Structure prediction request, 180 residues.
Amino acid sequence: AVIALVLSAGFDSLKTAQEKAVDSGQYVPSDNWIAYNNASDFSVNFPSRPVHDTKTQDTPNGKVQIDSYKTANETADVAYIVNISSFSSDVDVSDPTAFLENTVQLSANNGAVINSNLITKNGYPAIDYLIEIAHPDTTSRIRGLNILVDHKLYQLLTAYDKTQEYLLQYDKFVDSFNVK
Prediction:
């Protein structure tokens, strides 16, 4: 239940993040991504300056702080999101494989996991995945990489309409990510 609340936090304001980025004129050509180093514990390249917000959610295991950094490509067809969820030491992460697989299943709450692969990123356990969500008039996809670092979950997410997949620059996004 804790994870479900955390994972949903990055998606509830996806459209808002896209609208904010469009309204603020933060778009740059996709070849000129911005190196974002302002966060204290990670760096990543975004297609434009991200919007940052912090939430604290009450869960059965206590409060979980979620920091979200959201932006989109220059045409707002692909959203790029980094969520950082800080768990208390009471949350059991002793089996990283099970924990990460669970995060993907919970992310697919309203969709289906198309594929997932356990990997390492920066020496930390991680899972790369693709989720598809059917809507009445379209199909959206979430391609993501979840990285577990001690009691922090880093989620690198891309969200897009399946027909716009050709605009996705997933590898450019996740390859640029580093834990400080």
Observations:
- The chain has a mean pLDDT of 83.
- The radius of gyration is 15 Å.
